[in-house]
Specification:
The chain is built from 2 helices and 8 strands; from the N terminus they run ββαββββββα. With about 120 residues, it is of the alpha/beta class. The protein has a single domain, classed as Ubiquitin-like (UB roll) (Roll). It is globular, with a radius of gyration of 19 Å.
């Protein structure tokens, strides 16, 4: 698989985290801090901190230590707080995290169960 980092092609293994592929290629800066512009790189490696966040395929603040590579993905250093580089097409659905999608039916069924008990 090939990932593009700042325009440079990097070889990666299928399913490996983006951060692992970048570290293997010698990348040392993943993001810069908003206030002082200081460089940051991988710290915890388990998705708890934000030192590995980068811009991935135009989406800022992606935790690269827990996000697997995809062939052809574009990865860029996150400058400060980051900004979207790609706009959502008019009428396209917004991305909804899987956990939020799972919570909606569960909450609805719980609400319905309470309504049946009260009736």
């Amino acid at each position: 698989m090939t990932v593009r980092y700042q325009g440079r092609e990097i070889e990666a293994f299928d399913g490996e985290p983006i951060a692992a592929a970048l570290l293997a290629a010698g990348v040392s800066v993943f993001r810069t801090t908003p206030k002082r512009g200081e460089p940051r790189r991988l710290f915890c490696g388990i998705g708890r901190c934000t030192d590995c966040v980068m811009v991935v395929d135009g989406m800022p603040n992606v935790r690269t230590c827990v996000t697997p590579v995809r062939d052809g993905m574009e990865v860029e250093v996150l400058e400060g707080r980051g900004a979207w580089t790609r706009r959502r097409a008019a009428g396209a659905p917004r991305a909804v995290p899987a956990a939020a999608k799972a919570a909606v039916p569960a909450a609805a069924s719980e609400r319905d169960a309470h309504a049946r008990v009260e009736a």
